[in-house]
Amino acid sequence: MAGTTTGIPANVTQGSQTKGGVGESMLRPDGTLKVTGEFAYSSDMWHEEMLWGQALRSTVAHAEIVSIDTSEALALSGVYAVLTADDLPAAKNYGMEYQDTPVLAYGKVRHHGEPIALVAADHPETARRAAAKIKIEYRELPVITDEASATAPDAVLVHENRGDHHAGHAPHPNIVHRQPIIRGDAAEAAKRADVIVKGEYTFGMQDQAFLGPESGLAVPAEDGGVDLYVATQWLHSDLKQIAPCLGLPEEKVRMTMAGVGGAFGGREDISMQILASVLALRTGKPVKMVYNRYESFFGHVHRHPAKLYYEHGATKDGKITHMKCKIVLDGGAYMSSTPSVVGNASSLSVGPYVIDDVDIEAIGLYTNNPPCGAMRGFGAVQACFAYEAQMDKLAAKLGMDPVEFRQKNAMEQGTIMPTGQPVDSPAPVAELLRRVKARPMPPERQWESSEGADVRALPGGLSNTTHGEGVVRGVGYAVGIKNVGFSEGFDDYSTAKIRIEVINGEAVATVHTAAAEVGQGGVTIHAQIARTELGVQQVTIAPADTQVGSAGSTSAGRQTYMTGGAIKNSCEIVREKVLEIGRRKFGSYHPAWASAELLLEGGKVVTDGGEALASLVDVLEDEAVEVEEEFRHRPTEAFDLRTGQGNGHVQYAFAAHRAVVEVDTELGLVKVIELACAQDVGKAVNPLSVIGQIQGGTTQGLGVAVMEEIIVDPKTAKVKNPSFTDYLLPTILDTPTIPVDYLELADPHAPYGVRGIGEAPTLSSTPAVLAAIRAATGLELNKTPVRPEHLTGT
């Protein structure tokens, strides 16, 4: 089934008597509260007698810490505690995969903005003033900022004496992880090519730029533990890192999700959780921490900047012969998820194309630049930017239409990936390209009217820089492939506790998971699945916390698949238990209880023919049924460290874009007019949410195409623009019309046939915009973001 929309999609019903189930467009229950400013975010929390926490961060990127003087800070009235690494109660390091990140720097600092000391005070301004009084003496060290400085034989090591399991196969101590992929014989295949194109591409460091800064509240408990209320993406991963640093068993660190103001990967790593908890346990008082925007730029990981070197060949009839590439990802000062990003970048570097002969290498570096980790698209974004530019170069050299060239080489179900893994679910790459190309073009010269030029529709907008002079239109296309879920042998699972009972004369289901609602829409989808499986109208979504089993991270497009699958699985078990109760109570009254296929719909037990046998209220009476079960997707395996072969991914997602831009070639200003997307979503559980996710991902791709970049001084490794004044984001005035055309080609291995949707549109939107700007200007443009000076040569 397909849907096309430029706004709210039509409902897709299941024919159930229970409204609000799978396939219907449902409004978010927190939507109105958020747009009216009434929603309580983590930064809004309050506790009587709470203190305010503040971190002091390094002003240099690489240095030995000679001394720390906290005396003046401690003497300030209202200060309750000043802590350094020497005051930490237990483990001093944390990390998702490898514990190389200090809670507070000790010995030396490895990046600009690294936390060194902590203050707790009775007022946030007092805490800030006290932190400013802490005196730190540094002995600065040479900075490592790029591949050349990181891998030189005499390079300064960012981490001495590495103990992680990647160190043994890394060709240099400053290389976090290396993943080659070799399939066929690229060198031999290159001899068959009639044309060969090469390109060197640079992808800038992008920030997640969530609007709600890192924040949370830690409350010391009577049992010596701590209750932590925080905005995060993965409660149980946080828990496993926090407890050792506090010297507490996990059961004494009780975590509850607070309101999240966006995430996009930036909350997958620890930020203030340990800092606030250490202060709370030290002072015996609740401690709240809220980063300001400057701190936030240093308080979370970013998207890996990358250098990408590609070579493709093709025959005269347009078949790709081979591909060679090297991808260099800058992981910054600490590991975070760099090894997994390297795995993604390498395994998806070929794009959604059939290429039998490949020679691929991806590496992740340790540098003194800001730490990088998870962000929407996770390694596939950088690769897509490069391989799609290559597709346009090949098509141009062959004199072929760029869409037709892509379609000629497009993968489909049954294609073998460069890793040797077959694509065993729908892969409608050619169809997605056809759909975006077939859309009507937006009208030319939309700024013209009888009253003169409407500058809002022109490059430069209300700055009134042009009335149409020098404005040229360009159209560009791109398509991408993204894995869904955790890969490379990770034990990826989710847990759901489902309870059904009678409350006030009505059957009510409660869904309890630890899944983080970060804006992706789980708050509606979880209830939709429960309604569909249990046939009840009233569904309560319990707050996410660590009192239930892990739901995994809200990332990798996995939550509808994984936690949705867990909810479905637990609901099915609950349903069978309810039917057992019904058979026990009423089986003697109707033969259908023993022989028919029974369903729960509309608050009743019904046969598959629609005959009602009993109400759920009568079946349950005073009984409650509760089930907590885990759900796992089919297993994956690690990529071979020499050849890159292996069934590393569980599912793939595909999206294509067509960008229409208008460029003021004299001033180098760009106006994106339309950014149309076609995507296979497997099953639209909530079509309204599907559209929002695709449009949101598209907009983030637009941002990195033309404006978003964290700028790091290559000489000092210091961040030059840690503010939303200097780090530019697309506003509603920059965001074009985003028509969406979605397919529903079910993945037979997934619950309801769903396919992760949130990440794929972030891939192809960026290269589509770049392709359109190239078409308008004739420039090569091998770097993101494109700035005016790149277009004017100034």
UniProtKB/TrEMBL annotation:
A GO molecular function annotation here is: oxidoreductase activity
InterPro entries xref list: Ald_Oxase/Xan_DH_a/b, Ald_Oxase/Xan_DH_a/b_sf, Ald_Oxase/xanthine_DH-like, AldOxase/xan_DH_MoCoBD1, AldOxase/xan_DH_MoCoBD2, AldOxase/xan_DH_Mopterin-bd_sf
A Pfam family cross-referenced in the UniProt record is MoCoBD_1
Domain named Aldehyde oxidase/xanthine dehydrogenase a/b hammerhead: residues: 36-142
Please give the Gene3D superfamilies that the UniProt record associates with this protein.
Aldehyde oxidase/xanthine dehydrogenase, a/b hammerhead, Aldehyde oxidase/xanthine dehydrogenase, molybdopterin binding domain
Q: Where is this region: Disordered?
A: 1-27
Q: What ranges does the record list as Polar residues composition bias?
A: 1-17
What's the protein called, per UniProt?
Answer: Carbon monoxide dehydrogenase
Organism classification: Bacteria, Bacillati, Actinomycetota, Actinomycetes, Kitasatosporales
